[in-house]
């Protein structure tokens, strides 16, 4: 790839040209797939490479709300403190290819993993931020803390503001934004499966599993019902304890339980019976039909076979 | 190139030549086939694919792509590695343009057969153009992904389907083309994943991995060769005719018998389903734990599954099923007509051969040279009949089978839910009675 390097040097002097201001005036919505893709990029980094960067794609609503939906990696090289080379050609080509699939997503900013233990933003970050402000006005910068400091994998978002004195730019100040996970129903189902997969890794059984089969619907239902049952048992155990004066009653919990119970609709037994029966009959009829069809299929297959031989 | 039966690349190259050149004689083809089976015996066939390990990120990527394209269907490429008995899918990227196939609405009834075929031809032509474009796109993406250390090894493709209605000739042909290409080029065991946005809801995921079975791929390859090979000047006699007159030595009959044997394929054997496992990289596990801690109940889908409404899903499913059954009925009627026609032609052929034999006998007595007994390529009754393939009816069978399975599964959990609600209601009534 013909690498056109966009090299920029720090605009300001030797002094650290940024400060961090912790305010949460704006919320950035993030789809889970972006986070996983960033981590995947980090896992596939070059040997010896400290951090990886890439472009964030998504939408910007009229009110300025940022929704990060997608991302792709961009190769870059950091030399010393003052120089960063970003694969501009690469970025452009990848962007063109992305646009062919999804034309709604625009460049929102860039992501990076942490350059070192406990450091979120460094000198080079300003340079790259500078570079991205040419790609999109007011770039968003998302840092994923892969150094796992404090045992968390933190995700932080920043926007930069330039600090000016007269005409000369003195520094870039990164303002932190609040990151919120946004997952559609389908994405939650996918995530749920991933959660289950990571659970099975830590199963009580000694053998380490690292994967999970997709459950069938009935298995899933069983799981849901078991969970419902345990929850009900918990609640009734609590109520029993309170009634038997083993536990001091908590009025908040009590009113919550009452409101949940009142949510069970009161249906006249006769009405319920009727709808239950009709539903049951519908289902039975459908199953009968489908079994009948299956029998017919077996016959049809025989016919198809004998007619060809 | 997947079939263990065919194994050796050299033999397959021969097959390709036959498909391209078109002028290869049957004898040469048969020789090729013989050579293939010999060398295939020498080569160890690739181990059977036992499971597919899909990275959680890939799952999310596919969901994202398919959901955004919905209600249009879409497809994309899977990247990964082929390790022993499993295939690891570690990344994926979408392809531009949609995927072919029926959309959300059930097909309208009473279609005109002719116009449908024309339509399909048009679609096929358009698909060919698209395919070239998509190939170029894929190449570009792969080149770029290579630069950032991503496994750029295509191991299959994914597509979205609506209510699992992917068993039609067009989609299968597309699958065949892709699988053929991928199997020959990169991995021996490419797969395709289907994701159904229509059925992925209320806490259940519809995500399946399939592979066209080796036997089926073989059948499609043979047909491709036969249709492009042309077989000019060679008369093919059906086994029935050969059996009726007896004592004929005919290359054609051997081929016919072979292909009839291949046709002996049940609907269940077209597709192989391969179990999927979802895996997470270690860092992903950390992220998931983190997300769980911070989002807690918002990610919980366990109780979405207790939704009681079943009707709309079953209704659509039955509607689709009805449509397919109608189609199958039409196919069977066609087949009956065709069978009658074939029987008539075969009777004529037998008559012709018997007459010719009698004539040859007379000639032998007179000492004249004998005439060929195997049929006359210029005679109309020996013109190859373009018999309709039973592929389509096989696919319809498979499709109806899938619908039935879906209905049964769905109503199975429907029963459970119904009885659950019954229990809740009874508990409620009992409590009310007690209170009084």
TrEMBL record, chain A:
Cellular component, GO annotation: eukaryotic 43S preinitiation complex; eukaryotic 48S preinitiation complex; eukaryotic translation initiation factor 3 complex, eIF3m
Keyword Protease in record: no
UniProt keyword Cytoplasm, yes or no: yes
Subcellular location: Cytoplasm
Entry-linked InterPro entries: eIF3f, EIF3F/CSN6-like_C, JAMM/MPN+_dom, MPN
Membership in a protein family: Belongs to the eIF-3 subunit F family.
Job description of the protein: Component of the eukaryotic translation initiation factor 3 (eIF-3) complex, which is involved in protein synthesis of a specialized repertoire of mRNAs and, together with other initiation factors, stimulates binding of mRNA and methionyl-tRNAi to the 40S ribosome. The eIF-3 complex specifically targets and initiates translation of a subset of mRNAs involved in cell proliferation.
The protein's name in its UniProt record: Eukaryotic translation initiation factor 3 subunit F
Organism name: Hondaea fermentalgiana
From TrEMBL, chain B:
GO biological process entries: formation of cytoplasmic translation initiation complex
Extent of Basic and acidic residues compositional bias: 358-368
GO molecular function: metallopeptidase activity; translation initiation factor activity
A GO-annotated cellular component: eukaryotic 43S preinitiation complex
Primary localization: cytoplasm
InterPro entries documented for this protein: eIF3h, eIF3h_C, JAMM/MPN+_dom, JAMM_MPN+_peptidase_M67A, MPN
Subcellular location: Cytoplasm
Sequence ranges assigned to domain MPN in this UniProt record: 52-216
Keyword annotations from UniProtKB, A to Z: Cytoplasm, Initiation factor, Protein biosynthesis
Disordered as annotated region, ranges: 1-23, 90-119, 358-385
Bias (Polar residues): 376-385
Record flagged with keyword Aminoacyl-tRNA synthetase: no
Keyword hit for Protein biosynthesis: yes
Role according to the record: Component of the eukaryotic translation initiation factor 3 (eIF-3) complex, which is involved in protein synthesis of a specialized repertoire of mRNAs and, together with other initiation factors, stimulates binding of mRNA and methionyl-tRNAi to the 40S ribosome. The eIF-3 complex specifically targets and initiates translation of a subset of mRNAs involved in cell proliferation.
Family named by the database record: Belongs to the eIF-3 subunit H family.
Quaternary organization: Component of the eukaryotic translation initiation factor 3 (eIF-3) complex.
Protein name, UniProt field: Eukaryotic translation initiation factor 3 subunit H
Origin species: Hondaea fermentalgiana
Source lineage: Eukaryota, Sar, Stramenopiles, Bigyra, Labyrinthulomycetes
């Amino acid at each position: 790839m013909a690498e056109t390097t966009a090299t920029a040097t720090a605009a300001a002097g030797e002094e650290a040209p940024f400060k961090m201001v912790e305010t949460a005036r704006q919320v950035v919505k993030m789809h889970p797939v972006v986070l996983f893709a960033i981590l995947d990029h980090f896992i596939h980094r070059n040997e010896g490479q400290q951090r990886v960067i890439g472009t964030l794609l998504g939408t910007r609503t009229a009110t300025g709300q940022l929704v990060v939906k997608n991302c792709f990696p961009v190769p870059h090289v950091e030399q010393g403190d003052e120089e960063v080379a970003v694969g501009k050609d690469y970025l452009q080509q990848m962007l063109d290819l992305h646009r062919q699939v999804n034309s709604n997503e625009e460049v929102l900013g860039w992501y990076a993993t942490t350059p070192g233990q406990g450091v979120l933003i460094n000198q080079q970050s300003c340079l790259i931020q500078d570079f991205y402000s040419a790609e999109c006005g007011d770039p968003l910068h998302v840092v994923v803390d892969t150094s796992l400091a404090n045992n968390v994998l933190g995700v932080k978002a920043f926007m930069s503001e330039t600090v000016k004195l007269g005409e000369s730019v003195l520094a870039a100040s990164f303002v932190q934004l609040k990151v919120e996970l946004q997952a559609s129903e389908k994405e939650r189902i996918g995530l749920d499966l991933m959660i289950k997969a990571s659970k099975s890794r830590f199963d009580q059984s000694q053998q380490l599993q690292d994967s999970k089969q997709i459950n069938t619907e009935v298995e899933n239902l069983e799981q849901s019902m078991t969970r419902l049952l345990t929850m009900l048992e918990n609640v009734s155990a609590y109520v029993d304890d309170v009634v038997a004066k083993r536990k001091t009653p908590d009025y908040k919990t009590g009113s919550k339980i009452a409101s949940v119970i009142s949510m069970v609709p009161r249906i006249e037994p006769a009405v319920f019976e009727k709808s239950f029966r009709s539903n049951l009959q519908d289902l039975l009829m459908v199953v009968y039909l489908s079994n009948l069809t299956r029998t017919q299929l077996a016959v049809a297959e025989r016919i198809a076979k004998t007619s060809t031989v | 190139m997947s079939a263990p039966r065919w194994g050796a690349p050299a033999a397959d190259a021969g097959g390709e030549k036959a498909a391209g050149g078109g002028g290869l004689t049957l004898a040469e083809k048969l020789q090729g086939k013989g050579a293939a089976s010999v060398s295939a015996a020498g080569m160890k066939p690739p181990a059977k694919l036992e499971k597919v390990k899909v990275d959680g990120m890939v799952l999310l990527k596919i969901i994202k792509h398919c959901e955004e394209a919905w209600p249009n269907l879409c497809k994309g490429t899977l990247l990964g590695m082929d390790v022993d008995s499993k295939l690891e899918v570690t990344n994926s990227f979408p392809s531009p343009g949609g995927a072919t196939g029926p959309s959300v609405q059930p097909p309208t009834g009473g279609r005109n057969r002719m116009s449908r075929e024309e339509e399909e031809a048009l679609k096929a032509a358009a698909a060919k153009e698209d395919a070239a474009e998509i190939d170029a796109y894929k190449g570009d993406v792969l080149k770029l992904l290579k630069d950032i250390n991503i496994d750029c090894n295509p191991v299959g493709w994914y597509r979205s389907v609506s209510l699992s209605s992917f068993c039609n000739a067009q989609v299968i042909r597309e699958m065949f083309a892709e699988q053929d290409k991928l199997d020959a080029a990169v991995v021996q065991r490419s797969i395709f994943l289907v994701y159904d946005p229509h059925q992925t809801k209320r806490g259940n995921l519809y995500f399946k991995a399939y592979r066209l079975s080796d036997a089926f791929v073989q059948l499609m390859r043979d047909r491709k060769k036969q249709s492009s090979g042309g077989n000019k000047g060679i008369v093919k006699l059906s086994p029935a005719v050969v059996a009726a007159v007896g004592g004929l030595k005919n290359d054609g009959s051997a081929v016919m018998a072979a292909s009839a044997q291949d046709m002996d394929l049940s609907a269940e054997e077209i597709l192989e389903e391969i179990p999927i496992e979802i895996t997470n990289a270690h860092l992903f596990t950390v992220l998931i734990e983190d997300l769980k801690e911070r989002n807690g109940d918002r990610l919980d889908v366990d109780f979405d599954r207790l939704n009681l409404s079943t009707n709309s899903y079953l209704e659509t499913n039955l509607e689709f099923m009805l449509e397919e059954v109608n189609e199958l009925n039409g196919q069977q009627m066609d087949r009956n007509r065709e069978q009658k026609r074939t029987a008539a032609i075969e009777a004529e052929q037998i008559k012709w051969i018997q007459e010719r034999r009698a004539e040859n006998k007379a000639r032998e007595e007179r000492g004249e040279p004998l005439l060929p007994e195997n049929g006359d390529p210029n005679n109309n009754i020996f013109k190859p009949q373009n018999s309709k393939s039973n592929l389509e009816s096989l696919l319809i069978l498979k499709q109806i089978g899938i619908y039935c399975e879906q209905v049964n599964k769905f109503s199975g959990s429907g029963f459970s839910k119904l009885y659950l609600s019954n229990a809740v209601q009874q508990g409620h009534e009992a409590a009310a009675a007690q209170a009084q």
